[in-house]
Amino acid sequence: MKLLSQLRTSSFQLALLYMVVFATSVFLLLAFIYWRTAGFMTAQTDATIEAEIAGLAEQYRGRGVNGLITIIRERVAREPNAKSIYLLTTDEHVKLAGNIQQWPQSTPTETGWINFKLDESVGWMGNQRLARARIFEVQGGLLLLVGRDVEELTNVKKVIENTINWGMGITLALALLGGFLMSRSTTRRIEIINNTSRRIMSGHMSLRIPNRGTEDDFDQLAENLNQMLDRIVYLMEGIRHVSDSIAHDLRTPLTRLRNQLENTLMSVDNDEAREQARRAVAEADQLLATFNALLRIARLESRGNAGDVKTVAIDALVEDACELYEALAEVKGQSFEQELEPGVNVEGDRDLLFQMFSNLIDNAIKYTPEHGTIRIVVRKENGEAIFSVQDSGIGVPDEEKNQVFQRFYRVGKSRSLPGNGLGLSLVNAVAEIHQARIDLTDTHPGEESPGLTITVRMPAVVKERRKRRRNTINAASPAIDDDAGLV
C-alpha cells in the first residue's frame, strides 16, 4: 500500500514525465548514432563495390571479354576466401567466371542492387553468410555480378542495435529508480509537513515545521508556514486574553450584583417584588454560568491536551453520570435506558470526560419532550470505545449538524428553551483534547420528531496489568465469583 501511495504522488508523476522526456531524448540520440554509423558502413561497402565495378569495366574496355574473365579468375585464385564476390554469366546464367556457382534468386532493385545469402543455393562451399552485390550488363549479353561479404557489417549492426536496446533499458531503469528516490525524498519532506500540520490542527499550537537548513524551496515553505503559525498564535492569544479579561472583569461585578439581588430577595415582603427579584437572581445565575463556561472552554482550548491522564473506565463513569441525571428524567416521565458494556477503558482526564458525558446526557433530557425515550450506550468496537446517547426529541436539521458545536449557536427549534449554546462547544473542546470523534445522526430518520443520536468514538485501551492480576487471583482462588472481582 505504501508503494502504491508513493506511485500516486505528484512528485513521482513529475519524475515519470521527466523520465519519459529523458528516455525519448536518449532514444533519438542513439537512433541518430545508429543511422549515421550503419549508414556510413553501408555506404562504404557500396562505394567499394562501385570501385571494383569501375576497375572491371576498365579491364573490359581494354582487354575485352576474355580479359575480363582472366582478371576475375586471377582475383578469385589470388584470394579464394576474400570478401569480394564475382560472377560472370551469359544471359541464361551460365557461369563463365567467379567464386560462386549459381545466380542468386533474390530480386534486384531498380538500381541493380541485390542482397542474398552465400549458401548452397549459389554454390558457396563455406559457412552461410550475407552478401550485397550489384548487377549490370556487359556488351554482348553477358551479366556481371560484383559484391561483398557483409556478414561482419550485419553483425556490427546487430551489436549496435543490442547496445541501443540495452542502453534504453538501463536508461529507463535508472530514470525510474532516480524518479522513485527523488519522489520518495520529496514525499518524506511533504509528509513531515503534513504530520506536523495535523498535530497543530489537533491543538498542539506550539509545534513548528522542521527544516534542514538547506534554504531550498521546502525550507522556505516551512519558514513561511512557521511565521504564519506564529502570527496566528499571537492573534489567538490576543483574542483569548481580551475575552478572558472581559469574562473575569464582568464576572466579579456580576457576582456582586447577584448577591445584592439575593439579599434583596430575602428582605422584600411584597410578593410581586420578591418574584421580580427571584427572576433577576435567576438571570444573573444564567449570565454567571455563561461566563464560567466561556472561561472553561478557553482554558481547554489553550491547554491542547488532557491534564491528569489516567486509564478511565468509561462504563463506570457514564453509570455515575446516569445516576446523577436519572432523577431529572423521571421528573419529565422519560424512559431512561442504559446499555453499558463493562471493561471499556480509555486514556484521559476523568473530570473532563465526566463533564463531556454529563453535558450530552443533560442535553438529551433537556431537548426530549415529556414521556420521551433516552438511551445511553457504551460499547467497544474495532479497538474504539464508543459512547452514544439517543433521544426522541426535536432533533437537529442536517444542514445545521456541522454548526451546533460553535459557541452560542442554537438550533431554531430550541431557542425558546433555557440554555446558552455553550454545552456542545465544551463537549467539542474535551473531545479534541482526547482525540475523539463526534458523529450526529437522526435517531428516527424521516419522522416529524427525528430525535438525535450523538456518538463519541475514542481510542480504547486494555488494562493489561489489571488483567494479569485478575488472572492470578482467579488461578489461585477458582471459587471466587467473577462479579466480586476487582473493579
From TrEMBL:
Source organism, top-level taxon: Bacteria
EC number assigned by the record: 2.7.13.3
GO molecular-function terms, A-Z: phosphorelay sensor kinase activity
Region (Disordered) location: 465-487
Domain Histidine kinase stretches: 245-462
GO cellular component: plasma membrane
The protein's enzyme class: transferase
Subcellular location: Membrane
Matching InterPro entries: HAMP_dom (IPR003660), HATPase_C_sf (IPR036890), HATPase_dom (IPR003594), His_kinase_dom (IPR005467), HisK_dim/P_dom (IPR003661), HisK_dim/P_sf (IPR036097), Sig_transdc_His_kin-like_C (IPR004358), TCS_sensor_his_kinase (IPR050428)
Sorted UniProt keywords: Coiled coil, Kinase, Membrane, Phosphoprotein, Transferase, Transmembrane, Transmembrane helix, Two-component regulatory system
Reaction(s) catalysed (UniProt annotation): ATP + protein L-histidine = ADP + protein N-phospho-L-histidine
Protein name: histidine kinase
